[in-house]
């Protein structure tokens, strides 16, 4: 039995904790106390520094010095101010004695300096918040901004003052405003007009009008009240009701993946690449904890919310019966990673016994030990008794919550589970190699049902050929945060000195005696639990459920139809010469491709960020506009001249670009309608309009993966085109539609990740990518013909 094998395992005790059976070493106790004090010191220091931003202690020192100078000098021009300061000092009893004036000068100057500093702090903070509420800059070309915007930009930089730490800007960001009901309803009705007949549109307008006149004012008042006290009136509801209350399995339905460099890799060794990336990720983690990550600034001026970075590491989505919980562990707990190899789990401490982070070479040696140890135990039934345990995280969430409590809620299983969930992140040392992008991406999205712990914020997969990829849980944060992390790592891999002669780091840079050995995690897998794990693995691969008189696929890796392909004919360099936004150009190509394939339009979701506001996450850009439809029809029906088609394309591109900017500026409407719906349900009302509006299927769900968030990153250039990442992707939102993720890495090419369901007779991911490429080619041909004619 598994519990008998676990009981006979030799306990693993760290040598540094004990000496010949005596009490704990005083040096270990001293180091532990010292690390705790340092951690608290930096935490308090950062809190004070962030609380003072955009001012600084330098401002306080200057004011104190100026007041003191005025008090001890006797310039006629400053006499009135001098008298005021000395009169203020009379309120304090100071014993007379030589030199009598010095204590009074010190007390008065310090008090006035502190008062002035506090007033200046709040004036600058609220002035900056007011300035950052201006959004006119978004609608102007950076190279041709108005005088008003230039003056505004100068004021922002003056008020911002010194370079902020990672989270310093949070208190100065504006809060997300609540749009008017009239604006939201009008924009929504306009966005769905191309999808319905005139009769359906009229019926929807009547429902909207009834909603506007009845319960909408009450719901709006509630949202306005919430916006006054909540940091963001949407985000907490969005996380709870969109993510955490979802009961579907995370694989394919919620989690997403990202890939490494397109055609370049720094090493052929699995252990070396794993060591280098683990080292870089832990460095980024420490930078976040010490608030040394440079906050993102749009146009090097406008800060965005960095809230999501707090939960990038050491975070787990814990399943509950009603709704899940996001649990984050701080740096004092989350100092290790969990390594999975051939079904065996290991705890790998990322700090040595002196509390210092492991060097890349030390991590590489630890990983090589794990590879050898796991490979030597592959025939051992006891060591691999928990193989496939991660498949439990692929289950429907309520089912997983119950099984987690019953089988992993006590004893050695609870202890091992706690180590997994408290880990900074997980890595999987895979045994299989996937040559093609599509095959590798498909594995990263859903695995084989055994190797991805879908609840963890991040799971990295390292392949025998030196490549890697990442699977991310979605509820804690959005893809741009993960993309920033991987861009930071790629920068160091390409331009840094992370690898030496194909290996990680320098062997002479470590003291192996201080490195803690990996610890194998043990699990008590009873026959009953083994059967459940096996069933969970089958569920992940191919499971049907009977509900509402229909068979529908809950989770099926084999049913996922994924295609990853690079478009090489042209990139954003050519698109910009056409005076069209690259994002708008691709969105119009998607509309044209879908219409050619299905002879109808599709409700389209494109994600945009609202991180210009405190705790902002995303807003929906509804890319299907009247102007886009008119352009698509002109291409399909071919009843317009080339000049007319180009005009329609450019006009549709401008409309889309404005729509995207509106969503960034809190002038979208989908999140507002979502909040109205939550308030409606919470107050016990029913609304046919809100129900219909929020249940329309997103046949096309699209997203652009950001590639260059670090200022001056030279790895994203045509010279480094082979090093640019293909980006990542996700599963289709609708079983009858497509999930499309695209990457615009640099000027010469695009990447597309298209997903759909094989069980749907009307979709085919390869065919749709062909249609996208054809559409892009036809759109390019318009401008080529125009240039030839001119």
Q: What fraction of residues sit in β-strands?
A: 5-15%
Helix content: 40-55%
Broad shape: globular
What's the level 1 CATH class of the largest domain? Alpha Beta
CATH architecture of the largest domain: 2-Layer Sandwich
- Give the total of domains: 4
Q: Enumerate how many helices there are, as a single number.
A: 24
CATH superfamily of the largest domain: Choline/Carnitine o-acyltransferase, domain 2
Q: Give me the Rg, rounded.
A: 30 Å
Low-confidence stretches: 1-24, 543-555
Distance between the termini: 82 Å
Total beta-strand segments: 22
Indicate the structural class.
Answer: alpha+beta
**Mean pLDDT, rounded to whole units?**
87
Which strand order does the major sheet show?
13-7-6-8-9-10-1-20
Q: What do these coordinates show?
A:
The chain is globular and about 90 Å long. 46% of the residues lie in helices and 13% in strands. It has 24 helices and 22 strands. Helix 11 crosses helix 12 and helix 20 packs antiparallel against helix 21. The protein has 4 domains: 108 residues, no CATH class; 94 residues, Fumarase C, Chain B, domain 1; 283 residues, Choline/Carnitine o-acyltransferase, domain 2 (Chloramphenicol Acetyltransferase, 2-Layer Sandwich), CATH 3.30.559.70; 201 residues, Chloramphenicol Acetyltransferase, CATH 3.30.559. The protein is of the alpha+beta class. The strands form 6 sheets. An 8-stranded mixed β-sheet has the order 13-7-6-8-9-10-1-20, with helices on both faces. The N terminus is likely disordered. Strand 2 and strand 3 form a beta hairpin.
